[in-house]
Design goal:
single chain, 252 residues, alpha+beta, BirA Bifunctional Protein, domain 2, SH3 type barrels, 2 domains, seven-stranded mixed beta sheet, five-stranded antiparallel beta sheet, 12 strands, binds biotin, transcription regulation
Length: 252
């Protein structure tokens, strides 16, 4: 059940048994001008997509596959840092169920006890100055079976194991609640309103990390994020700011 406030921000909630990818479907609706304030939850995705061209494996009963489409009037620069703020919204939703040890890994992974619990794929449409649309896809692991788990190419966490017994639909309602309030307020408040909350949950703060974009690699100490959500890397005293996109981060 959504709170009255966030219910007012949602136009349509689509519940699908099977879909190729909830992000792909909502992006198509965005193009037709019919995706604003629409959420789509699927029981299974046959072609789920992750960041940087990866697959996101999502068979029946293995977690949450959810996307929300939203339109903004201010151009894409007003959405700077949004993907990090979505991480904060997800962490808040998990906190409602007292899920322990939730952390954020820049730019937008949700970690739990040192492994990835959920990922966010944010896709934008539109231009720099005028209206733009965003589709926010959220994939969260819960109840992974061994045949799925063995296909995942990074350390993963599973909500059923960390905190058993949370009803999936209650969790989805909490995620939508947090997300809709965030999206509604974001153009006015921007990332700076969420920076402190993000910083408190920063998995790698003060730790040595490696950043990679294609064949380029940078090493240094993770020194938090700036007001736009860029990662600050301390490279022997020189502070360099990195903006999301295709960059990946890992511990050293
Ligand atoms: C990542 O960490 O690489 C992001 C994963 C995002 C997966 C979700 S599942 C719902 C939505 N539909 C997709 O095809 N991808 C996102």
């Amino acid at each position: 059940r959504l709170s009255e406030k966030s219910k007012g921000h949602l136009r349509e909630l689509l519940l699908l048994n099977e879909v190729d990818s909830t992000n792909t479907q909502l992006l198509a609706r965005m193009e037709e001008g019919d995706g604003h304030a629409v959420a789509m939850l699927a029981e299974r995705q046959s072609a789920g997509r992750g960041r940087r061209g990866r697959n996101w494996i999502s068979p029946y009963g293995t977690g949450v596959s959810l996307s929300v489409g939203w339109e903004f009037s201010g151009g894409v620069q007003s959405l700077e840092g949004l993907s990090l703020a979505v991480g904060v919204a997800l962490a808040r939703a998990l906190e409602r169920f007292s899920v322990p040890d939730v952390r954020l890994k820049w730019p937008n992974d949700i970690w739990c006890r040192g492994s990835k619990l959920a990922g966010v794929l944010l896709e934008l449409k539109g231009d720099l100055t005028d209206r733009c649309a965003v589709v926010i896809g959220i994939g969260l692991n819960s109840g992974l079976r061994i045949e799925t788990a063995t296909k995942i190419d990074q350390p993963w966490a599973d909500l059923q194991q960390v905190c058993p017994g949370i009803p999936r639909n209650h969790l989805v309602a909490a995620i939508l609640d947090e997300l809709l309030l965030l999206l509604h307020e974001y153009p006015q408040r921007g990332f700076s309103a969420h920076r402190d909350a993000w910083t408190k949950l920063d998995q790698f703060a003060g730790q040595p990390v490696i950043l990679q974009a294609g064949s380029q690699v940078w090493t240094g100490i993770a020194a938090g994020v700036d007001d736009k959500g860029a990662l600050i890397l301390d490279m022997d005293g020189e502070l360099k700011h990195f903006h999301g996109g295709e960059i990946s981060l890992r511990g050293q």
